[in-house]
Amino acid sequence: MTKKELKPIIDKYMKKWITNLKLAEFDYTIEFKTLKGDYAQVATDEETRHITIEFNPRLLKTEQEIEYALEHNIRCFNVESIPELERINTVAERMDKVAPISIRVNPDVDAQTHPYISTGLKENKFGIAIENARDVYLTTQGLSNLNVIGVDCHIGSQLTSVSPFVDALNRVLALIDQLAVDGITIHHLDIGGGLGIQYNDEKPPTPAEYAAALAPSLAGRNLEILLEPGRAIAGNAGILVTKVEFIKPTEEKHFAIVDAAMNDLLRPALYQSWQAIQSVEKNTAIEKANYDIVGPICETGDFLGKDRQLAIVPGDLLAIRSAGAYGFTMSSNYNSRPRVAEIMVDGEFVHVVRQRETIESLFAGEQVLQA
């Protein structure tokens, strides 16, 4: 796809799939997008770290967050409802500012992915139904402290086919054409993310195939195109390393109890997702057996993989593949477990980009009630 076919593309890195700012230390300014859909142009300095930490990734936009965003000249609010529009307009008016906005539309397209990460159907909580979007855009014309600059659409995550992307894009472009007739000019189109990766036997489209499928619909349009290729960039670039603590054979199952758990990697428990698991070093001295790889948390749902053929003994290290996206960022301190360290490998160099948490750090903010 040439620049002529598709106007400059800006990658929007979503804080929900990875949160470590070390991964964004490039020689140019980069833009982060939070799950709640707000853009802020930032650079990787101390001020940036403060800003990106302040914008918590969630759908809710509090008045305090809106004020903070406007104070720092946020690029764009992605708006999901009329009450959000009204709140942003009210705060902007109070601050004597004009808030740039883009409306997230829900095109009612089946992303053909796990229902928990499908976001573009009418039944999902995200965005404004596309058949109602025109009226909402017209409503903005009566709100003097809003400046409409874009349209946003994201139909889901881990898509393995280009057809839902194309279907959603064409529906959104039809809306943009109708808005032009109404005298509303759209400057940018955020077509979201969702391009999948191979965890097991999936065959997702390559970035080139994805681009080739979208290019015909976008050719000749004077739109800035925004993309969110998070998982496709980082997913297969990371692993979770865990140690086998015990081998526990039972009448029904063989369990390998490891020191990692569902709090470290939630996807298998939450989505019943499959991620490859392999020994860091091959053990040729023993035969393979069938294991469930489980953690020490007191829930049956605490597993990282089931029915895996492995030749392992206590003390062996296992690598859980495809943990570069939605790994650490979904981790928690459940069961009072400190979160793991994050290590970046750059050729022959190894960097600790996030220190391992300690038990003491978990309790640092707590206070005992005074008598």
UniProtKB/TrEMBL annotation:
Its EC number is 4.1.1.20. Residues 60-234 form the Orn/DAP/Arg decarboxylase 2 N-terminal domain. CDD domains: PLPDE_III_DapDC. Keywords: Amino-acid biosynthesis, Decarboxylase, Lyase, Lysine biosynthesis, Pyridoxal phosphate. GO terms for biological process: lysine biosynthetic process via diaminopimelate. It catalyses: meso-2,6-diaminopimelate + H(+) = L-lysine + CO2. Its cofactor is pyridoxal 5'-phosphate. Pfam families: Orn_Arg_deC_N. Gene3D superfamilies: Alanine racemase, Lyase, Ornithine Decarboxylase, Chain A, domain 1. Belongs to the Orn/Lys/Arg decarboxylase class-II family. LysA subfamily. This is diaminopimelate decarboxylase. It comes from marine sediment metagenome.
